[in-house]
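Supplementary Methods S3. Input chains for the assembly prediction are listed below.
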Amino acid sequence: MSSIIKITNLRKSYGTNEVLKGINLDIQKGDIVGYIGPNGSGKSTTVKILLSILTDYEGDIEIFGENIKNNPVKYKSKIGYVPEVAELYESLTPREFLNFLGGIYGIDESEIDTKAMQLMDIFGIKESYDSRISSFSKGMKQKVLIISSMIHNPDILFLDEPLSGLDANSVAVLKEILHQLSKKGKTIFYSSHIMDVVEKISSRIVLIKDGQILADGSFDELKNINLDSSLENIFNQLTGFNDHTDLAKKFVDIIGGE
Amino acid sequence: MSDPFILKLIDKISFFYGFFGLDYKEIRKILKVKLIMDERRTSNISNVESKNGKTNLFKKSLIVYAFIGFFVGITMLSPIPLFIKGNIIFGLSFFMIMSVLISDYSSVLLDVKEKSILGSRPLNPKSINAAKMSHIAIYIFQIGMSIMGPALLMGSYKHGALFGVAFVLASILLIAMTVFLSSLMYFLLLKFFSGEKLKDILNYFQIFISIFIMIFYQVMVRIFEISELTATFSQGTWTHLIPSAWFSSFLILATEGFEDTYYIMSASLGLIIPVILFTVYSKGIVPYFEANLQKIFESSSNERYKKKKVGLLERILSRDPRERAFISLSKNIMAKDRKLKLKLYPGLSFAVIFPFIFLLNLASGLSFDEFRETLLSGRYYMYCYFSIMFVVSLLPLISTSENYKAAWIYKAIPLDNPQIIFKGAVKAFIIKYVIPVQAFICMLFLIIYNMTIPFDMILLLINSILAIVLAFKFSEKRLPFSEDFEYLKNNNMAMLFTSAPIYGGLALIHFISGNFTYGIFVAILVSLSALLVTWKKGFKVEWKGL
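Predicted structure tokens for the full assembly:
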């Protein structure tokens, strides 16, 4: 099977600081890839490069079998993106924003409205369809962002911290949405810090640190190699972080004045 | 961390807080942080351009107020009767301070962070409130000083020290009254509106005051003309209703002694009413106020949604449905982004008013018939090019937004060519603002000129659109709504100068064409074809460099 996303030797530097040091990834259709790593390891940078938001990089990226440097636009009609920070034109209402996107993707206004209303209803925010986004809570904004990334029925989803601000119920819904989308052949590439979720829904987990891939495989494969039972422990072990008990003790001691 | 200068001043009167049973130590700590934050705001901006020594927005507006205060203060030196001078100064200060309070009070009141940061700490709520009130008081004091200070100095110079004392007393009472009245206004707004609606109304107040200040600069000249007239003031019972008359009576009593019962009566009203109002305010209104404040954060209000048909202009100017998506996005943002509106609307209203201010200058000293004759004998509608100038200088605004970071969306959607984004924004600007503004001005001039100049007005309308498209073509391209308002600092003025050849040239062609028979038709033809060409070719933009 040919891969839907193929990253070959991806390197990216900000000045002299090399953030990505040769990433190689082959992602198949229908994969749910959990892209994890400590803060500042290069996750968001990778996603931004995949979207051609950052264009100044070395290496090759093929999406839908075509190098995105040759055509940095066409593939975007079939991808959805949730950025790390939920920035939206907040003076608009969801209706106005989603209708704008509909106009871009060539979807009829009434179709967008029906779809969006139903989707917002599922997330429990239907009555806010005509309220300014600026009046929304963080979770509500995130929901609008998620809906706006999927409204055009994309084949690949890039989700950068899609769970931030969502309550437990909404997280459960989103997990199931991702699962069912993947069954329908959609490919999902997402990053998160919540290890339980990554552990449960990913068909494949890629762990990076300092711009390099440390581990790559299904959860079971990672478990067998690293002889550990939870992704959190594997994460700590692989990123070389094992003094959390000491650090915590110090912290508590300082608070108590000991 | 050294104490702010103002805080040291307040230390001197700290017994005042103890008098009301408040804990000054606690208040001082909170106030210190607030004042330090105010100062930081300065250094944040000046870090970027410390070479120019620019100060923060508040200090800048103080300079503007002081400028107004200076011109008003000059009347103090003029020979008009003191009572009238007093009325001019107090009336204007009253109006200014009140508008500033209503528009800017919101930034203090809307401080949500304060509640979550201070509210969770073991602080007496009374101290938090007192610190807030003191902060506002300091703020008002600074504004009051810059508006009325010049008049105080110049008046004391002319009328003596006793005048100064009376003036200070009157100012304090006047400020107390404005605080009361603006709070009452706020209270009523909070009672009847909530959430977004309320913020909208505050936004209109802010726009209004910016427009007022801009116009005030221009009308200044006329104020002096009025002041040259030997206006007489007839005493009557009804004048007791005017607050500025009360305070002016203070000045009369201080300079002329307690003789005229009219002034004694008026001044005592000025003393009693503010005191009563302020007591009512602190005892009666403040508690309700706090309770209703929460409403401002409510998000209950839905925007009224109307199914909009695509407008005729839009259909003529754009056939691409994707471009129309950008047009309606841009129209929506321009209509709703409050900070953007605060920059845009005063500029637009200025564009409307400016040609007519020129006409007024022309009218000075003439009778109505003489004025009419002069007007019709000349081609004064050429002043309209000044409004084109203003509208062009507003063009960089379409690159800015309150939520400028949301511009990532342009990169996430499939667009071969960014020109469609720019086309959408520029066309939205033209449809929503340029055409209505220019059409309105043209209509007025048509009426003034008895419908004798229809072709000049058509040419003007075409030229206004042409000027925008040309100015865009030669300007630096930034994605629409993708920049912080800082961006405007240099670019607004730069646009005014760099596009001078454009609107200047168009005005010149228009003017020369009037010297030939049928010249106007040639000019229309030339402008129209130039517009068609630039419309097709003027929007070429590449992704590179964006």
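Chain B has two domains: 56-297, 312-537. Chain B has a mean pLDDT of 80.
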